[in-house]
Amino acid sequence: MLGFFGIDDIKFVAADAMAFGAETAIAKGEAEVDALAA
């Protein structure tokens, strides 16, 4: 469906660990986003 809108470079960041330690999961997610932006 995203290809229909012209989006073809898709990256996923896992956020499923939010229920088991939100602060650690947020820090890990931010690190993953920073790595993708670099």
- Strand portion: under 5%
Count of DSSP H/I helices: 1
Largest sheet: none
In terms of quaternary structure, what is this? single chain
Helix and strand element order? H
User: What is the general shape?
Assistant: elongated
Number of strands: 0
**Quick check: average pLDDT?**
80
Backbone CA Rg:
13 Å
Name the structural class.
Answer: mainly alpha
State the share of residues found in helices, binned by percent. Answer: 40-55%
Explain the overall architecture.
This protein is mainly alpha-helical and 38 residues long. It is built from one helix and no strands. It has a domain at 13-37. The radius of gyration is 13 Å and the shape is elongated.
Q: Secondary structure elements and their pairing?
A:
Blueprint lengths: L21 H16 L1
Descriptive key words:
38 residues, 1 helix, 0% strand
In short:
With 38 residues, the chain is mainly alpha-helical. The protein has 1 helix and no strands.
